[in-house]
Design goal:
Mean pLDDT: 93
Strand content: 5-15%
Largest sheet: 8 strands, parallel, barrel
Helix content: 40-55%
Distance between the termini: 20 Å
CATH topology of the largest domain: TIM Barrel
CATH class of the largest domain: Alpha Beta
Low-confidence stretches: 1-5
Number of strands: 10
Strand order of the largest sheet: 1-2-3-4-5-6-7-8
Length: about 325
């Protein structure tokens, strides 16, 4: 077997290709102290259950802080991030770049706990200049390598999504459904914020597709919006499945612990697809990544890359892997 064939499939097939950014499929938001603590504990418990961290915990300053108490909330978020387990995946949503609390958020949280954060989410990003402003603030706080995730919430931001996604500091684009709908001055009915309407109203559908396309064009992660019907498990899973299968999203927000498992279930590949992917990638590696015939179909690097990403998704959602694929996801192999 030659040198390239001996490489881990991730190195042999992806390299610098689009899709190189790999994140858990669920991003869980909480801003109330008791819920933030519970979220971090739940993350630890589910990591032990699945053998990998299956969701990020984003501690929320924008919606979590009471007006006038932004500094106190930022201090609380900092202490929670510092106290989290060493292997925890913790992030923070700060206030928008034009909010009076933005700089203080970054200086307090990133300045003290930047080394424990996986990313900083910046809401209400309108232009590349907003991204640059946020990046400069992180740099000044001593975190020049900390990624940014951005929330696209207006028609103008959707129009500029490709430019925003191309910024090297941006790791993921999220869609802010409710702000997007309200930005249309009543032109989109309230039903456009519900599970059914957000997948059928043409303007919302177009925005979702533009954001997903912009993210993929720059090798970034498109993250789908929340589902407000948090008590309807079937509706959550249905929305998550549509986001993943029909709209090209590879990540989704959660705003209640009950939403996490339905999101994981919806974004996970089917067991038959996981089995097929493992067999094809194993056969490809044995063939030194040359084209192969498999079940009467020709496969080459393009399809190998697809099937490797199926296995990546299976691992990130805690799905059981076939024996021939397990070694690729051991700590030593990764």
């Amino acid at each position: 077997m030659n040198y390239e064939a001996a490489l881990h499939p991730r190195a042999a097939l992806l390299g610098a290709q689009a899709g190189a950014v790999v994140l858990p499929v669920c991003d869980h938001y909480s801003g109330v102290e008791a819920r933030m603590r519970k979220s971090l504990q739940l993350q630890s418990e589910m990591t032990e259950e699945f053998g990998t961290c299956v969701f990020d915990v984003t501690l929320d300053c924008e919606d979590g802080a009471r007006t006038g108490a932004e500094a106190e909330h930022a201090a609380l978020v900092t202490e929670l991030a510092l106290a989290a387990a060493a292997d925890a995946r913790v992030a923070v949503r700060v206030h928008p770049v034009d909010h009076p609390a933005f700089d203080a958020d970054v200086q307090t949280i990133v300045g003290r706990a930047g080394g424990r954060l996986r990313h900083v989410m910046v809401p209400k990003v309108e232009t590349v200049a907003d991204v640059e402003r946020a990046a400069q603030a992180l740099d000044a706080a001593g975190a020049p390598d900390l990624p940014l995730q951005v929330l696209i919430e207006s028609p103008g931001a959707v129009h500029r999504a490709f430019e925003i996604a191309a910024h090297p500091r941006v790791q993921s684009l999220s869609f802010g459904l409710m702000d997007f709908v309200s930005a249309h001055a009543g032109a989109i009915p309230a039903a456009g914020m519900g599970v059914a309407g957000q997948f059928s109203h043409p303007l919302v559908v177009r925005a979702k597709l533009d954001i997903a396309s912009a993210a993929h064009a720059s090798g970034k992660v498109p993250s789908h919006c929340v589902v407000t019907e948090f008590s309807d498990t079937a509706a959550i899973e249905r929305a998550a499945r549509m986001a993943a299968r029909d709209f090209g999203y590879t990540r989704m927000w959660s705003i209640h612990p009950a939403q996490i498992r339905p999101v994981l279930q919806a974004f996970a590949p089917d067991p038959s697809d996981i089995e097929t992917a493992a067999r094809i990638v194993a056969a490809a590696q044995a063939a030194d990544w040359a084209p192969i015939a498999f079940d009467g179909n020709l496969h080459d690097r393009a399809s190998y890359r697809h099937y490797w990403q199926v296995l990546e998704r299976a691992h990130r959602t805690g799905r059981p892997l076939p024996p021939q694929a397990r070694d690729w996801f051991t700590p030593a192999a990764a």
